[in-house]
Write a structure and sequence with these properties.
Order of helices and strands: EHEHEHEHEHHHHHH
Strand content: 5-15%
Number of strands: 5
Shape: elongated
Distance between the termini: 33 Å
Structural class: alpha/beta
Length: 215
Amino acid sequence: MSTDQATVYVIDDEIQIRNAIGSLCEETGHQVRLFASTDEFLKERLSNGPSCLVLDVRFPGTSPTGLELQRRLVESGVSIPIVFISGHSDVRVSVEAMKRGAVEFLPKPFREQEILDAIRHGLERDRRRLEREDRVRDARQRVEALTAREREIMLLMAEGLVAKQIAARLGVSEVTVKVHRARMMRKLELRSPIDVVRLIDRIGHAADMARACLV
């Protein structure tokens, strides 16, 4: 996982509020980026490390609203945890934001500890996501290093077939299957068939591997 320092992005058109949140985050050791509008934020290149977005719901002028920005990020595949803040009590908006995956929805004025707890939760969520992505990336790299025959055997093992059945399916000897299976297990650093199943489930592209085996 990236070892970059955690970054908190704050978008609020009220300078006092964004500066106050920024100061709190800096005191807890986080990098902070402050924006007066969602338009400004959309020009930003996001950090590769764990991050969290503190986002106001409403903005004056033509800038996208907080919900519109959340929708754009989701549609673009940008997985940044969002803590919404708002000076207006709007149940419909808060429900919609939470349904789309927001970490928290805090009405203004909020206590310092409330916003810090929400940000901490968001950063922890993002750290877990990055850790999962690292594990998946590592697993995929290991699978890509396998030969076509080793991938075939891996997929058939995941179906629950033993060496004799795999040999019959592929039209090779059982000894050949065992040799390739041993190499495959060693390359993937796995110990049992259930580990193979878990690996394929983790990387989630068994169909792609199956097609590759047929090329």
